[in-house]
Amino acid sequence: MILRVPLLAAVVAAVVASPAQQPLSLAQHACPQHHPLTPTGRNAPLSAHIQDIYDSPDFQAKTIQALSGAVKVPSESYDAMGPVGEDPRYAVFADLHAFFRKSFPLIHSQLNVSTVNTYNLVIHWQGSDPSLLPILMTGHQDVVPVDPSTWNQWEHPPYSGHYDGTWIWGRGTCDDKGPVVSILTAVETLLGQAFKPTRSFVFAFGIDEESSGLQGAGKIAKYLQSTYGKNGFAAILDEGSGFTERFGEDTIFVVPSTSEKGYMDVKVDVSTLGGHSSVPPPHTSIGILSALIVTIEANPHKPTLLRTGTPFATIQCTAAHAPGIPQPLRDLAHAALTDDDALEKLGKQIGLVDPAYKAMVETTQAVDLIVGGVKTNALPEGASAVVNHRIGEHSSVHGLQDHITKLLAPLASQFNLTFDAFGTSVSSSSPSSGHLTVSDAFGTALEPAPPTPLDAEPWKILVGTAKASLSESKRESVVGKKVFVSPMLALGNTVRTDTKSYWNLTKHIFRYTHMGDSDGYNGAHTVNEAIRADALIDNVRFLTKFILNWDEAEF
Ligand SMILES: *[C@@H]1O[C@H](CO)[C@@H](O)[C@H](O)[C@H]1NC(C)=O
Ligand SMILES: *[C@@H]1O[C@H](CO)[C@@H](O)[C@H](O)[C@H]1NC(C)=O
Ligand SMILES: *[C@@H]1O[C@H](CO)[C@@H](O)[C@H](O)[C@H]1NC(C)=O
Ligand SMILES: [Zn+2]
């Protein structure tokens, strides 16, 4: 929640007091920008000294080698893998562990390294003050498979880990071995400096983020909850969105995902009597299914913008600080702080700010699969389609089920179909000319994530650390740029990180990888995945500062 009543009152008071500064002052209140945060207490000398280590060519070469070596182990995860112990394909993770043991000897000799479900790694670093809740830092060891037919499109082979002086190449360099190796490198370096944490830190790396997450984070979560208890962590940092310059040159937005959309694949299944095509009824199951799909597409979910939600915080930050936002849109965002009509209008126009934002305020729907019919002289006995949904933060799995059920019920009766929706009988028809069933297609429905609080200290530590890391960075692409922070609702391909298993462990979940738009060569999950070596090193700096800042925090 970003706006609380007392804050709103303060905003209104400020407007009344200084009308000339109205828009800016409102915007800044709507999107508070926290200060860069760097250790100033007992960790300050180490924090400064460690920068020199990270600047050294030796350290950088070793870190690049560590990632390169990790990439050489093709730890692919496939859809529909069996459990660990049955499916032999997990054995590759033992090779990765062996490589980690060789590359990070201090972690393996000084910390408690355990495995969960054989191949998930959980590393515990005990702090001296057990009254402070530990921090959980996570990532995944698996990678999406490389399609063999694309091997020849790679500039360097996908499991080469080749370093060309600028880029480290290969599957997993960005997602997620780069971030995992960065965490391990930060910890190994701190151990090398004899750092003894006050707070405990836990590192957990799953094995199937890219498929179901059930053998990996699902099992890790159970272990962590039984070991550390419900809400047993002060915060979780997992992979996620990074920083972006997409709003204009010379301005960097740090955009951690503080929420994730929900998910549901809805199967719409029509079954009718078969028979010969020479004496057909007016509508076959395919014709009826088509009518249902037309109705679904004609009734998209309405955009909904709530002042308490993540998308509202995102839009306020963009409106306040992004260059190039047209003034009328800025004014509308400001008005939406207090004016309900403006809020509704902003929800409808949010795509003008950034086309991707439209998906943020809606439950999206896409009809992605369809099957039906076998032969032209036989009436199809069944036809079905699957509609993919990403559920908005304001809604829920139940809200979506309700929407579809109400939408399709009139058609079911119009076509004289009995109707079952999500396991419940909605209506029966007599005489019945068939059956309509809607269901969770693959049993993969997921509620939207509980939004991470933005008015809390953990958020300030995360964004303060990111800002300080950017302001200290010596990289040309970063130096001298203005930095703003905006929370984000994860969309599309970042939806459903391993954190979906971790909701019980803390309210403060951050999906953030300290990397910019141009630090990956070609994105993840495709050919020519590569990471800039200096981005990898900067990520290590960020993670080190994150640990040291948290270690100094006293709550
Ligand atoms: C390892 O675990 C033992 C037993 O729980 C504990 O006493 C010790 O402090 C742990 N060491 C580290 C570095 O976490
Ligand atoms: C539904 O049943 C009614 C009553 O039997 C019939 O009049 C109507 O034509 C049927 N509608 C369709 C689409 O089959
Ligand atoms: C959260 O905790 C509840 C109760 O302890 C448990 O039933 C549920 O499975 C947990 N959820 C996850 C994702 O682990
Ligand atoms: Zn990933």
From TrEMBL:
<dbReference type="GO" id="GO:0004181">
    <property type="term" value="F:metallocarboxypeptidase activity"/>
</dbReference>
<dbReference type="InterPro" id="IPR036264">
    <property type="entry name" value="Bact_exopeptidase_dim_dom"/>
</dbReference>
<comment type="similarity">
    <text>Belongs to the peptidase M20A family.</text>
</comment>
<feature type="binding site">
    <location>
        <position position="175"/>
    </location>
    <ligand>
        <name>Zn(2+) 2</name>
    </ligand>
</feature>
<feature type="binding site">
    <location>
        <position position="140"/>
    </location>
    <ligand>
        <name>Zn(2+) 2</name>
    </ligand>
</feature>
<feature type="signal peptide">
    <location>
        <begin position="1"/>
        <end position="17"/>
    </location>
</feature>
<protein>
    <recommendedName>
        <fullName>Peptidase M20 dimerisation domain-containing protein</fullName>
    </recommendedName>
</protein>
<keyword id="KW-0862">Zinc</keyword>
<keyword id="KW-0645">Protease</keyword>
<dbReference type="InterPro" id="IPR047177">
    <property type="entry name" value="Pept_M20A"/>
</dbReference>
<dbReference type="InterPro" id="IPR017141">
    <property type="entry name" value="Pept_M20_carboxypep"/>
</dbReference>
<dbReference type="InterPro" id="IPR002933">
    <property type="entry name" value="Peptidase_M20"/>
</dbReference>
<keyword id="KW-0479">Metal-binding</keyword>
<feature type="domain" description="Peptidase M20 dimerisation">
    <location>
        <begin position="259"/>
        <end position="412"/>
    </location>
</feature>
<feature type="active site">
    <location>
        <position position="142"/>
    </location>
</feature>
<feature type="binding site">
    <location>
        <position position="238"/>
    </location>
    <ligand>
        <name>Zn(2+) 2</name>
    </ligand>
</feature>
<dbReference type="GO" id="GO:0000328">
    <property type="term" value="C:fungal-type vacuole lumen"/>
</dbReference>
<feature type="binding site">
    <location>
        <position position="175"/>
    </location>
    <ligand>
        <name>Zn(2+) 1</name>
    </ligand>
</feature>
<dbReference type="GO" id="GO:0051603">
    <property type="term" value="P:proteolysis involved in protein catabolic process"/>
</dbReference>
<dbReference type="InterPro" id="IPR001261">
    <property type="entry name" value="ArgE/DapE_CS"/>
</dbReference>
<keyword id="KW-0378">Hydrolase</keyword>
<dbReference type="InterPro" id="IPR011650">
    <property type="entry name" value="Peptidase_M20_dimer"/>
</dbReference>
<dbReference type="Pfam" id="PF01546">
    <property type="entry name" value="Peptidase_M20"/>
</dbReference>
<keyword id="KW-0732">Signal</keyword>
<dbReference type="Pfam" id="PF07687">
    <property type="entry name" value="M20_dimer"/>
</dbReference>
<feature type="active site" description="Proton acceptor">
    <location>
        <position position="209"/>
    </location>
</feature>
<dbReference type="GO" id="GO:0046872">
    <property type="term" value="F:metal ion binding"/>
</dbReference>
<feature type="binding site">
    <location>
        <position position="525"/>
    </location>
    <ligand>
        <name>Zn(2+) 1</name>
    </ligand>
</feature>
<feature type="binding site">
    <location>
        <position position="210"/>
    </location>
    <ligand>
        <name>Zn(2+) 1</name>
    </ligand>
</feature>
